[in-house]
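Subject: Sanity check before I submit

Could someone independently write out the structure tokens for this chain? I want to compare against mine line by line before I put it in a report. The sequence has 583 residues.
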Amino acid sequence: MRGFGWSLTAAMVIGLTGAAWAQQGGLPAQPPPLIKTAQHWKTMLGARARFLSGPARSFVGLADAWEKVQQAATLVRGGLSGGEQGGVGTNDSVATASYPNLGLTRFFGSTQNETSTAWCGRNAVIAFNDSGSILEDDGNKGLFALLGVLTPTTGFGYTGYAQSSNANAGNPTFIDEAHPPTGPVNTVDEGDPVVVCSNPHDFWLSSLYVDNSVAGPSGCGLQEITVQTSTDGGHTFGGPSPAVAYDGCYYLLDKDWMAINPSNPSELAISYTNFNHGNFGPYTNDCGGPGAKVLEVDQDVVVSTNGGATWSAPTLVYFDCTGKTDAVNQFSQVAFDPAGRIFDAWEEFAGNFFTRSLLIAKSGNGGASFGVPVTVHAVNPVGDSYLVFGLQGYIRDYEMPSLAIGKPGAPNAGDLYISWNDGNRRKPDQWMQVLKSCCGYGDGKYGFGNVLFTSSTDHGNSWSAPVQVNQAVKFPTDHFQPALASDFNGRLAVCWYDRNASPRNYVMTRNCSQSVNNGATWRAPIVLASGTSVVNQDFFLVTTNDLGDYDGLTTDFTDANNGFIGGFHYTLLGDQTVRATKF
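---
Independent answer below. Compare away.
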């Protein structure tokens, strides 16, 4: 069916849409609750939606997707004028049309990215955003049920995962397990999954979650970070359970990250960004009282001391009064050191959007409070700083930190490490010159990214001068989205996307490098795969120019095996799929 191209796909979309609304007697007068929430946040955030992660922006973009389906249905309604053709709502033969398998279309369901990997002994799990997961819900009718065209019978999931039962082998194999269980009707697992494990049996998966199955305090449902658990080595997961929940009218949660305490595996921590419009309504945030209408953006952390059964109240780590200063913080990663201290690292954007830095804060009391943040390093924006195009190839990218800490018993136990892509190789660019001349933005240059690395041996109080991980460039090319890990031998590894072999900065490879001297020097990289700078191929489900915001890299949490495992997105075949590598 794929070979028939656009005409058949359009016929399926319009045919299904027309049939669905025929069943309902015409176009729905109102969007379903999930779409109303998406419309609400599209209005509330406006241009600041650029700071959301890919899945959160895709959820907000459902407002536009619903309008696209409305337009398609309007075409059908206008084309079916009655009689033998069958007017909408008048002809049962239209209503009984069979539903096509939307997994066979080229227009959506083909984007998988943002991998997180957990490895314990023989078992490993890679979780990732998967636009195809929604199509698998409700018997391949999930997209239209999500958009309110059909009556849904379940919630929807944007998370996929794959499991390996031979992760301790030299070349492990992974089996796609589709997606973890969804919640009730009018819920959406938005994705941004992060997975951790404590032993070969017990795995946890966190993700962003919108719950409109309940009205919530103000009628917009709940914004949540949920956790799902597996006790069979990651083959199956239980249903979603909230680690944190907020009023969906005034709080939008984004960019969760989860960590497990290596010295006490029953202790988990989740960091996330909270776009806090609380003072629009009956609430008060740190930027003003009720009615102040000032957007606040927070870094928050919650902690569980009983394996995720219950979670603490959120601890505010840091905040920006974005509605007053335009400063924003985003893209946190959280980690435990061997002594149980919790570290939370993120990127800070100044009000001019061009001045940026990486910050980190520490908690020595189990996440009950965090100290004053330390500036790890100032960073240079990559590409055009994602004003419009991002990196060459229309790839959104920021400088978000990848955080790792030396493991208990290792030579580097407790040492902290951060890697990021930095636009420090700056070249004049006409587009950026236009932005500088017209609007006073930036320095008139494109920031070609290099992968940089820094370390701290004093619990994050001071940081070393950055070291470049990728090799010297042959041409002005981009190296971006590093993933960092440290093993029980004290070795460090970084993997990233590299366009150094492409003079036109288009073809990219997945490269990985190791250091055996605490990051002072890095070995020549190994090249694991090649691909092209292809962004998403989705018409409805992914509305953003993402290759993905990040990928994860990990070692065996149990220290029973050597090596590093990480997932990454692979684009050589023309769309985004997930592959795994071990080295």
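---
OP: Matches mine. For the report I'm noting this point. The chain is about 15% helix and 35% strand.
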